[in-house]
């Protein structure tokens, strides 16, 4: 019945976790779900209010434009200017997406012919791999290893693969490892990809969720990046808007046009009222996001200490809301035991790729009291197991 592209998908690990979670709940266990990276806090009220107003505007009841409202794209460009000092032309270098996942999933269709190679981070967000496969391409993993700060070793990519590669997906701050990349690393990427004629698709939804002095850079800050790179951005993580479905693709005009061309044959743009609310979100006072960072950082510290306490190896992440811990064993086995002994759900690292084996990902997107309760339960796991 199904096409080969469906058969080529790995058995959906997250469905198995959902099932185990469900069974635990049925046994009466109070499950603390640190598996999913979905902010628990509500969307700020001024953004919700704008949506309610904008929903009443009949202009928003018609088909939206394919590329997105001019005003939203201008708001994205202004935000990039303020945030990264990157200048973008809203008419050619910004595209509205129905959430960045949508844009990521459709991108390979614009650049990959059957048999073409795409370089993808491993461990990594699973959409990079499946979308390359859907386009008939060959995903080649770039291992993200702990000893390299979870940055890929570009020198380890063999010449032939580099020559054949059409696109490279990257994602910093990184899900699932919590790693960040420097401007120097991005410079290396841009030089490598320029030499090998590879387009860089950088996924940057966590730029505002950082804990150090400064946010980590946009790849577009690097000289030469605008020639070969584009960046996915999203309102989901910065403004607790995962349910709203709005993001953007910005950068090289030809890349943006290519993805836009695919999209215009698939969807009919993002709901105008959501874009109006998105404009208001992007203009939110910076203190609002700073407060959110404080909340995540506090939770992170609680869970970090607790995980250290049971002997896992991990470091404090500089960004994202994930802790990426080395278990020293099989990651599926660890998460199974964790759920059994503590009622805590975490994501086995192997679900993000073969190089995630042995790791486990904890997300701090649950209320702080629940994180504290998780820490408490972990103490008992430490003494009994
Ligand atoms: C959450 C996430 C996204 C998806 O964001 P949406 O804009 O909600 O689709 C994309 N990439 C990574 C790495 C993510 O963690």
What does this structure look like?
- With 385 residues, the chain is of the alpha/beta class.
- The protein has 2 domains: 4-43 and 287-378, Aspartate Aminotransferase, domain 1 (Alpha-Beta Complex), CATH 3.90.1150.10; 45-282, Aspartate Aminotransferase, domain 2, CATH 3.40.640.
- Helix content is 43%, strand content 14%.
- The protein is built from 14 helices and 12 strands.
- The chain has helices spanning 4-7, 13-26, 45-55, 70-84, 100-111, 126-134, 159-164, 183-195, 225-228, 253-264, 272-282, 286-309, 331-342, 368-384, and strands at 32-33, 94-97, 117-122, 138-143, 165-170, 199-203, 229-234, 247-251, 322-326, 344-345, 347-348, 359-363.
- The chain has a 7-stranded mixed β-sheet with strand order 2-8-7-6-5-3-4, sandwiched between helices. A 3-stranded antiparallel β-sheet has the order 9-12-11, with helices on one face. A two-stranded parallel sheet has the order 1-10.
- Strand 3 (117-122), helix 6 and strand 4 form a beta-alpha-beta unit.
- Helix 3 (45-55) runs antiparallel to helix 11 (272-282) and helix 5 (100-111) runs parallel beside helix 6.
- The longest helix has 24 residues, at 286-309.
- The mean pLDDT is 96.
- Bound molecules: pyridoxal-5'-phosphate.
- Pyridoxal-5'-phosphate binds at residues 37, 99-101, 125, 171, 175, 203, 205, 234, 236-237, 242, 247.
The secondary structure category is alpha/beta
Let me know the average pLDDT. 96
What would you say the CATH architecture of the largest domain is? 3-Layer(aba) Sandwich
Name of the CATH homologous superfamily of the largest domain: Type I PLP-dependent aspartate aminotransferase-like (Major domain)
- Class of the largest domain in CATH? Alpha Beta
Return Rg in Å: 21 Å
Uncertain stretches of 5 or more adjacent residues? none
Q: How many structural domains are formed by the residues?
A: 2
Number of strands: 12
Q: What characterizes the major β-sheet?
A: 7 strands, mixed
| Cα distance spanning the termini | 46 Å
Helix and strand pattern? HHEHHEHEHEHEHEHEEHHHEHEEEH
Helix content: 40-55%
By DSSP (H or I, 4+ residues per run), the number of helices equals 14
Strand order of the largest sheet: 2-8-7-6-5-3-4
Envelope shape: globular
Q: What percent of residues are in strands?
A: 5-15%
Could you tell me the CATH topology label of the largest domain: Aspartate Aminotransferase, domain 2
